[in-house]
Amino acid sequence: MKFGYARVSSKDQNLTRQMNSLTKAGCEQIYSEKASGKNLNRPQLQELLNTIHMKDEVIVEDLDRLGRNNRELTQTMRAIQDKGATFTALSLPTFDGIADPNLRALLNNLVIEIYKYQAEAERQKIRERQREGIDLAKQRGVYQGRPKKYSKHSHDRSGRFLYQQVLEMLDQGIGPSAIARKVGVSRSTIYRIKGARKEGTVNAE
């Protein structure tokens, strides 16, 4: 059986193009979700991996739909192989014309490994360029760092509201752990806000 998997990173992105490609590829069942690729804890992906069996085929439009780095891709593809299923990325070359299944699988795996290496190398280059840019900005004295999310002077409406809400709860004697659970942020953020008020600083995160 052919299973498809489609993913976009945010809720405002559209899955239609991927769904159409997977349908044209003959997928009989398609799992789709709107979730970040930063980890493998995605409900639809996990359901797919739990569903596939021997001789099934998992199809994605592009390899990065499964994961964002070499480790995640390798882990997911190993899970597919452990089930006895095969894997196809529509954006990569196919070897359907090769009759020998072992040779076809070997070539397919080779292409995937090359792709993973190139993708990881490109991400590394991007990170290096970002670091170089930050270093140059610091040297010029224009680097301001990541915008502070929860600042008492923030222009972000929800951030300013959260800051005041946390202060009010602290004044009521509510502990940081309870506040963090109630407002949906980490305890470290609560402690930053608490420390910022105590020290008279502007930014809490």
Automatic annotation (TrEMBL):
Protein species of origin: Levilactobacillus zymae
The keyword Zinc is assigned to this record: no
Record protein name field: Site-specific recombinase, DNA invertase Pin related protein
Catalytic-site annotation from UniProt: 9
Keywords carried by this UniProt record: DNA integration, DNA recombination, DNA-binding
MF annotations from Gene Ontology: DNA binding; DNA strand exchange activity
GO biological process, one term: DNA integration
Keyword DNA-binding in record: yes
Signal peptide interval: none
Pfam families: HTH_7, Resolvase
Family: Belongs to the site-specific recombinase resolvase family.
Matches recorded under InterPro entries: Homeodomain-like_sf, Recombinase_CS, Resolv_N, Resolvase-like_N_sf, Resolvase_HTH_dom, SSR_resolvase
Superkingdom: Bacteria
Residue ranges occupied by any Resolvase/invertase-type recombinase catalytic domain in the UniProt entry: 1-141
